[in-house]
Amino acid sequence: MSQRIQSIRGMHDVLPAENALWRTLETAAEQVFAAYGYEQIRLPIMERTGLFERGVGDTTDIVEKELYSFEDRGGESMSLRPEGTASAVRAGVEHGLLHNATQRLWYSGPMFRYERPQKGRQRQFHQFGVEAFGHIGPDVDIEQIALSARLFRVLGITGLRLEINTLGTPDERAVYRDALHAYFSERHDQLDEDSVRRLERNPLRILDSKNPNMADLIAGAPTLRDYLGEASSAHFRGLCDGISALGIDYTVNPRLVRGLDYYTRTVFEWLTDELGAQNAVCSGGRFDGLVSQLGGSDTPATGFALGIERVVALMEAQNVVLVDLAPQVYLVHVGDAAAAGVSGVAECLRDALPSLRLRVHAGGGSFKSQFKKADKSGARLALIFGDDEAADACLQIKPMNDDREQERVSIDAAPARIADLLGLAG
Ligand code: ATP
Ligand code: MG
Q1: CA 405, CA 253: separation in Å to the nearest integer?
Q2: Strand (E) or helix (H) holding 12
Q3: Deepest in the core among 181, 187, 286, 344, taking most CB within 10 A?
Q4: Which residues line ligand 1 (CB under 6 A)?
Q5: Model confidence pLDDT, tens digit, residues 278-294
Q6: Which among 314, 317, 260 is positioned nearest to 283, based on CA atoms?
Q7: CB 206 within 8 A of CB 218
Q8: Span from the CA of 373 to the centroid of ligand 2 (angstroms)
Q9: Would you place residue 57 in the very low, low, confident or very high pLDDT band (cuts 50, 70, 90)?
Q10: Do residues 166 and 231 make contact, with C-beta atoms less than 8 angstroms apart?
């Protein structure tokens, strides 16, 4: 026997049973994005490696050790995208969307990071992202937090915590960085291996350490709040007041730094206690310097990305009510005349009822075996099309899960009757 080829470690299939959760999330997200005036943009999943080195930052874990990079046939270094913001900015600059204009955009799709696969951490994972360009905030920062809160509410997800922080401007951060460097250097012997590496290149990232042995040391470190100028402080006060006014609970976490270099001022994260160590389901913030850094004019921007797998896991844990994707109607047919006419009948029904989920039996078999399949499909109605019905241009409609009688209707009248029995709108 030939050998089976397996999927790549950390890259998962989503089978139809789990896909109901994905569709529920996707439907809700698209509805909520539209409700806030965000428009969809579709971006390539591969970019020049330089975009991420410059965009995400070459001292981040993502660029230092997680990029899926390779030389294409022309000898140029390409990378599968590890996140969407750099691409969104690249596209915005390239197509002139950001110059003297504001934009509210959303995207979704797979992201790739060469991380150690574990619960909540994959090498191919998926995100929804939103990015707003051209607003200095904090009104848009507040809007995006409200948007994400609404999405979780629409989905029926509860128990999430919102943490916010400010990272100030690059200048403010430079001063803070020196203070942090001094603090951690004095305690060099307490640093773990990752933190030693981060100390010289980017000591802020030490605050992001997930190592519990580092927690006390980090708790004692100076905080950026003490290094903010008046404009950044006012921005942060406005942010806090704005989310409070909307009745959204939050805590200020002065250690929240995020794993990407481009953030300025606002950062936030929605966290859960129900998924173990990988507890961030949605992370975002402001990145006022990125557009100019990638060759555009100076444009303030803010955005977030939501980890679809983690939200789906949470929906599963919380038994969120799903959109139903099972067939509503199963069309059974027996006899040669019926078999010849059944696809025409099905097409008529689909013409008349475009939202109807109709599965036509295929593969023959007895009436009884077809009915078993109808039952197993979860359909609420079975339609029966035999040679008699074919001769009379009729259908039998049989409700599956109650005692109502089977009824015979003409094919012309069938769509209205089916819509009625299923409670379909329109
Ligand atoms: P984390 O701290 O969990 O590694 P991050 O700071 O790397 O997250 P971002 O790059 O901001 O995360 O990505 C936004 C969201 O994408 C995260 O909040 C998380 O829900 C999800 N995410 C990030 N990396 C992964 C991964 N490897 N597998 C699954 N989901 C991920
Ligand atoms: Mg990460």
Answers
A1: 62
A2: none
A3: 286
A4: 83, 113, 115, 120-122, 125, 127, 258-259, 278, 280-283, 305, 307, 309-310
A5: 899 999 999 999 999 99
A6: 260
A7: yes
A8: 45
A9: confident
A10: no
